[in-house]
Amino acid sequence: MKNLQKPLKIGNVVLPSNIILAPMAGYTDLAFRQMCCEFGAGLVCTEMVSSKALSYKNKKTEDLLLSLPQTKPSAVQIFGHEPKIMAEAVQNPLLDKFDIIDINMGCPATKITKNGDGSALLKNFDLAKQIIKACVGATEKPITVKFRIGYNDGEDIATEFAKMCEEAGASAITVHGRTTKQGYSGKANYEAIKRVKEAVNIPVFANGDCKSKEDYFNIIRQTNADGVMIGRGALGCPEIFAELSAKEISSIDKFSQIKYHYETLLKFYSEKLVVMNMRAHLAYYLKGKYKNSQTLLNLLKCTTYADVLAILNDFFTQTPKI
């Protein structure tokens, strides 16, 4: 059984552990990435950014690439389907601060796949290979690829796709054990990830359904993967990385954690944008022992941070720390 704290090398980048944060649209903002990093994540990743939008110098896209200098090691995830534009994106100076560049070939969202991006590339091996080779040739940074086991229900093309990624020059791959059509329903197929691990020589990260230390050991046992990528299991609970890496931490003050999240973002973005974007995070922060539907409903109506803070203060004053 692999040590949870075992360093892992991807290209020329050494990760302090083999437990990493998944890129998640609308969630892996700069503050959340920093919290996960502090709790022991071996690598954190931005939400996916459009290679084409980067070429247009899109302000919203550039804002997604803001990062705290102490958040290391870190990756940026890009998506697109045009090799030339993807290669140009890799060379964009805004990506200089990141240690690893990941290519999204797994997003199942219709607005992404209908343009031939994300997991639509699972249906076009030749184009996917061209994209990877173009990106690898455009930078000395490690290029990694995240993809799903197939596009349609019951499909498993993961092993052949993984071999192609390795041949094209990818330094590591992450396999989400679901098909595009599954979205996030059903259970992850760890057998498919195991076959991928047996077929390639580059590091393989298993992704899907890791929400506890028990899940982590189960995934490693079933897949023999080099590491695990955690997505939804970290939302509202960045301390999961401390639990999985056996990092000692004091009791969690969830109120202080949420305040840090807001106040860090407020240093970079407008109050209106932060309050709006944090609504998605609040639904995860207020779960488990903190679950309170009325409090969440009141928070979702807030338009200022002062209002949010007042409600949270009242709520947590009556809720014991863990």
What does this protein look like?
- Strands 3, 4, 5, 6, 7, 8, 9, 10 and 11 form a nine-stranded parallel sheet that branches.
- The longest helix is centred in the C-terminal third of the chain and has 15 residues, at 271-285.
- Helix 7 links the parallel strand 8 (143-150) and strand 9 (172-179).
- It is globular and about 55 Å long.
- The protein has helices at 30-38, 51-55, 59-64, 83-90, 110-113, 125-138, 158-168, 190-199, 213-223, 240-244, 254-265, 271-285, 293-300, 305-317, and strands at 8-10, 13-15, 19-21, 44-45, 49-50, 74-79, 100-105, 143-150, 172-179, 204-207, 227-230.
- By secondary structure, it is an alpha/beta fold.
- Helix 1 (30-38) crosses helix 11, helix 11 packs antiparallel against helix 12 (271-285) and helix 11 runs antiparallel to helix 14.
- It is 41% helix and 15% strand.
Q: What percentage of amino acids are in beta strands?
A: 15-25%
Cα Rg? 19 Å
Structural class: alpha/beta
Average pLDDT, to the nearest integer?
94
The total of beta strands comes to: 11
Name the helix and strand elements from N-terminus to C-terminus, one letter apiece. Answer: EEEHEEHHEHEHHEHEHEHEHHHHH
Ranges with pLDDT <50 over ≥5 residues?
none
The biggest sheet amounts to: 9 strands, parallel
The separation of the N and C termini measures: 30 Å
- List the total number of helices: 14
From the spread of the alpha carbons, the general shape counts as globular
